[in-house]
């Protein structure tokens, strides 16, 4: 019963963070204020009531339509809130002990995934933050991971300059993950992220000549970590 309650709290916490991230991603590139502008309907601009702002519940409570103008509300925020809630529960059950680096990188990757999905690029600030956190918090294996990270960086950078098939931000992310978690986990994550991308576009029989948001697939792969046959 206690575990259920803790998980419920973790879910609410994650959903709230997801709700906030969705708002930041929507408003920040437009130069809109995130904290002080009240949430409103995109169609009729009516200010939302406090009970409409509760993550997930607010969306279903309105039946997916605006209470005032009855226009359809995009379920995107609700979807991000659910993913956020599930992620939070996942972190809680994955790390029995308080794992600051794992949890904070997971959080930033979540934000980067939403941003990448919306705009097809990654905020450089997020990558810088992930890199700084890794340098500060990863003290045990940082030096052991330095050489693999360097080799991965060189190989991927050369590959990218030859084929233009890989974004610079994706390379930076992979190198940061090698520094933080080592080559083994990162290789698994990259493989699964690639597999997810291929599966998504498989029915087209070719990869479309567009920028593919890679980070969301990376985020999906993150959830597989507990089932990977890792050896330390
Ligand atoms: Zn409305």
Automatic annotation (TrEMBL):
It holds the Pfam family A24_N_bact. It comes from the Bacteria. One of its GO terms (molecular function) is aspartic-type endopeptidase activity. Residues 105-198 form the Prepilin type IV endopeptidase peptidase domain. The chain crosses the membrane at residues 100-122, 142-162, 174-199, 206-225. GO terms for biological process: signal peptide processing. The keyword Membrane applies. It is found in: Cell membrane. It is a multi-pass membrane protein. GO terms for cellular component: plasma membrane. Residues 12-92 form the Prepilin peptidase A24 N-terminal domain. Keywords: Cell membrane, Membrane, Transmembrane, Transmembrane helix. InterPro entries: Prepilin_IV_endopep_pep, Prepilin_pept_A24_N, Prepilin_peptidase/N-MTase. PANTHER family: PREPILIN LEADER PEPTIDASE_N-METHYLTRANSFERASE-RELATED, TYPE 4 PREPILIN-LIKE PROTEINS LEADER PEPTIDE-PROCESSING ENZYME. Belongs to the peptidase A24 family. This is Uncharacterized protein.
């Amino acid at each position: 019963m206690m575990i259920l309650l803790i998980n419920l709290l973790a879910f609410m916490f994650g959903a709230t963070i997801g709700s906030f991230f969705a708002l930041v991603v929507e408003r920040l590139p437009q130069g809109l204020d995130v904290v002080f502008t009240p949430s409103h309907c995109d169609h009729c601009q009516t200010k939302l009531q406090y009970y409409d702002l509760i993550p997930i519940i607010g969306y279903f409570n309105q039946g997916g339509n605006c209470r005032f103008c009855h226009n359809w509300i995009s379920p995107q925020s609700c979807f991000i809130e659910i993913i956020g809630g599930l992620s939070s529960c996942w972190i809680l059950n994955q790390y029995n002990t308080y794992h600051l680096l794992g949890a904070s990188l997971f959080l930033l990757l979540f934000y980067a995934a939403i941003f990448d999905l919306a705009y097809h690029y990654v905020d450089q600030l997020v990558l810088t933050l992930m890199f700084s956190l890794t340098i500060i918090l990863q003290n045990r294996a940082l030096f052991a991971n330095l050489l693999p990270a360097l080799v991965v960086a060189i190989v991927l950078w050369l590959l990218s300059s030859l084929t233009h098939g890989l974004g610079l931000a994706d390379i930076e992310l992979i190198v940061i993950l090698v520094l933080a978690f080592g080559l083994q986990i990162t290789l698994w994550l990259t493989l699964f992220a690639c597999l997810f991308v291929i599966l998504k576009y498989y029915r087209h029989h070719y990869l479309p000549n567009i920028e593919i948001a890679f980070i969301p697939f990376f985020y999906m792969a993150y959830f597989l970590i507990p089932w990977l046959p890792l050896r330390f």
